[in-house]
Structure formats: C-alpha cells, structure tokens
Amino acid sequence: MTTTTPDIDVIRARTLAGIAHGFLGRRGGVSTGLHAGLNVGPGSEDDPAAVAENRRRALQVILPGTTLLTPYQVHSADAVVVTAAFADHDRPHADALVTNRPGLALGILTADCAPVLLADRTAGVVGAAHAGWKGAIAGVTDSTIAAMETLGADRARIVAAIGPCIARTAYEVDAAFQRRFTDADPANERFFVDSRAGHHRFDLEAYVTHRLAAAGIGRVEALGLDTYADDSRFYSYRRSTHRSEPGYGRQIAIIGMMD
C-alpha cells in the first residue's frame, strides 16, 4: 500500500498494519542534482543541510514528535538493543536496531540492499534491519530476531516486511559470489539463475524472505519493489555505478511506537 503525505512516497506493509512504519523512496525531498529528492544519507556527497531536512521530513510523516535513530551501517550481522536516544557521533556500528521504548523511531538506510522492518505487537517490540548480501548471509535477520527476544518478543508472534531492494533481474554476480552461498547451504542455489558465462543473477529479496521464514517468522511480506528499475522513485547504488555517476542517494525505512 502506498500513500503520499505530502509529496513524500510512503510505502506501508499490510503485515505491519497498526504499527507506525514506512518505507520511503526519493520523492518529496529538498536535495537537488545527483541526489535529487529525499536523500537521507549523511555519508553521501549531498549538502548536509539538505540531508538533515530530508530526515526531518521523513520522520514527520511516520512518527512525528519522536527521535530518529539510525546505526552506522557496516554490512554486518550485528543488532543493537536501543533503550535511549543516542547522538549522531555515538551511532553504533551495526546493521539492525531493536527497541521496546515508545518515542524512538528506528531507521535503516538503503540504496539496493533490503530494508527489513519487524514487530511483535503483543510485546511492543520493533526492529529494523539492513540486509545487504553480506549481512544477509551472515545472519543479520537472525540477530535482529534474537535481540527482539531479549526484550520479550516471541518469534512466533513477530511479523516482518521487506521493502524496496534490487531485483534479481538487475543483480548480476560472478561465480565466486554464488559459491559463498552454496558453500553455506547447497539449497541456496535456488536463489540464483544463470546469466552470461560465469555469471548469475541473485534474488536478494527471496533469500532474505527465506532466512526470516527459516528463523520461525510465520508472516513475512515481500513488497517486490525494485530499486534499480525505477529511478524516479528509488535511489540505487548499482544503477548509479552502471551510469558512472560520482555518487548516489539513500532512502530510509522507519518503524517505532508512539508514546
């Protein structure tokens, strides 16, 4: 389900109905030029003032009046329990945040990697994970679920949604990449299809869905939105690379609970 508020593209998952959340694209921001739109990446080459305003706007349409927290993402499997707001310079080096504290909005930045939002409504616990291929195979979603359980969540009740990410049609990888996955589990071959000689196309969304289901999450919604294919709606690292552009923007996924 997609709504626009105002001019900002907010994509919501049915699985997370009743939980304040949203997967945002690039529409509705103040950045210009290469980063035109709602670029929320402080690590991009964009004007810091524009990034700050975009982050303010993103928070306003999802959880106004709360504090937006994002980790310093490092493509790891690390998930951090958050009990209080932290300063930007104290951002944990991790790829997932979880909390049970109202007033905190958890955000994950992506530009082809899979954003995953999770919630246990009964326990009042939410999580946000950044699942690039490195974090996905290392188990970032498993770590997120385990961290949520330390706050009283039950994986039998946790629901999850996977937001916009690069689709298999655009995600060509070499044979060594495929071997990392098939060496970990021969059954992972199903997430690849043959491409040109010595290359394959990888289905990141399907793999992350599989990892969540294998961890015991019974309701997983994959939104099936391709960041690479729609340059008017999403930022994409790989698309920018293929175009030899000097930089790229980041979109954000946010989840949290109101006071």
Q: How far apart are the termini?
A: 25 Å
Structural class: alpha+beta
Q: Give the integer mean of the pLDDT values.
A: 95
Q: Please tally the β strands and state the result.
A: 15
Radius of gyration: 17 Å
Query: How would you sum up the major sheet?
Result: 6 strands, mixed
Which architecture per CATH? 4-Layer Sandwich
Order of strands side by side in the largest beta sheet? 1-2-3-15-7-4
Q: Please report the number of helical segments.
A: 6
Helix content, binned percent? 10-25%
Order of helices and strands: EEEHEEEEEEHHEEHEEHEHE
Structure report:
There is one protein chain. This protein is 22% helix and 25% strand. It has a six-stranded mixed sheet, covered by helices on one side. The longest helix is centred in the first third of the chain and has 15 residues.
Notable traits:
six-stranded mixed β-sheet; 259 residues; single chain; CNF1/YfiH-like putative cysteine hydrolases; alpha+beta; 6 helices; 15 strands
